[in-house]
């Protein structure tokens, strides 16, 4: 029997470790918006989608991250989004189960409900080989 690893835990640690290695200031990374929101408005939310299996061991996942910051920091937000994309793409070199990666997009995705904040969406595909033991 092959049990898939928790890709949410893997993606979160990949983002945290990768951004730290790039010297990016620490910020919350979670699957949910922090409550209360940080006063800095800097945080990253993400979801791991898919898991479409090619066979018993190989699956395709999409990691979708949203990088949030104040509107005044839009340039920094965009830079952090590109860094998140790079970190997730580099997972092929840093995460044992990730075999192939591809950055699908890094785009502005502002939340109309939060006019004082900017947001960028990062989408990266991962092809994952589940361990057999």
Number of DSSP strand runs:
5
Number of helices in the DSSP assignment? 3
Along the chain, the helix and strand elements come as: HEEEHHEE
Termini separation comes to: 8 Å
What profile does the largest beta sheet have? 5 strands, mixed
How much is the average pLDDT?
93
Q: What percentage of the residues does DSSP assign to strands (E)?
A: 35-45%
Strand order of the largest sheet: 1-2-3-5-4
Q: Over all CA atoms, what is the radius of gyration?
A: 15 Å
Find the structural class using helix and strand composition.
alpha+beta
Structure description:
The chain has 133 residues and is α+β, with helices and mostly antiparallel strands. It contains three helices and five strands, in the order αβββααββ. It has helices at residues 7-21, 74-89, 91-94; strands at 29-30, 43-53, 58-70, 98-108, 117-129. A five-stranded mixed beta sheet has the order 1-2-3-5-4. A hairpin with a 4-residue loop joins strand 2 (43-53) and strand 3 (58-70). Helix 1 crosses helix 2. The protein is elongated and about 50 Å long. The mean pLDDT is 93.
